[in-house]
Amino acid sequence: MSYKKESYRHLGETLIRNFNKRGIDACYCEDSTEAIRKVLELIPEHASVTWGGSMTLSETGLLDALKKGSYELIDRASAKSPEEARALYGRIVCADYFLMSTNAFTTDGELVNIDGNGNRVACLITGPAHVIIVTGMNKVTKTVQEAIDRIRTAATPPNCVRLGLKTPCASTGLCADCQSPESICCQVVVTRRSRQPGRITVVMVGEELGF
Questions:
Q1: Is residue 201 exposed (0-12), middle (13-18) or buried (19+ Cβ within 10 Å)?
Q2: Coil, strand or helix: which one is 91?
Q3: Of 88, 106, 139, 142, which has the fewest beta carbons less than 10 angstroms from its beta carbon?
Q4: What stretch of H or E contains 49?
């Protein structure tokens, strides 16, 4: 085990306690393979499962694993019209399990997310019965402000490039605190506590995942 991996494991153990103090369940997995196994253990067969946009879920292979299982999958990308997307969203918010990553999280156990349309953070806040968050340890910061800074400098610019958006950061690589119509920094959500203990589970992975 590398020194970095061992440090991640120790930090994960500390963070589990800090998340638990905030009504959030958490666990630490050494790698993506272990994380997939853990998530599948948490979801019973035939449960309705959906997810928010996430590079992490794709990189770990979790979405591929779900598609091989016995679940009722609700894929927002399957909508072929705005009307169908709206109807589908009604099913998404009532799903048994909502999967996502987090843009950042603090050493004190707070989740920090910045979103464009807000559907991802909306489901984090309320709606689906259970939320499972899969995140790499590269997203941990000391404070909420450091988390926001990290998202705006390390996550948003490459995400805008990936999505082909015409924002200042997509062309300069730097946050301009813009008011662009295509901005994906419209909602800033800090989850400091889960009012429903155990509704949210954070699966920390000892790898660098996502942006």
A1: buried
A2: helix
A3: 142
A4: strand 48-51
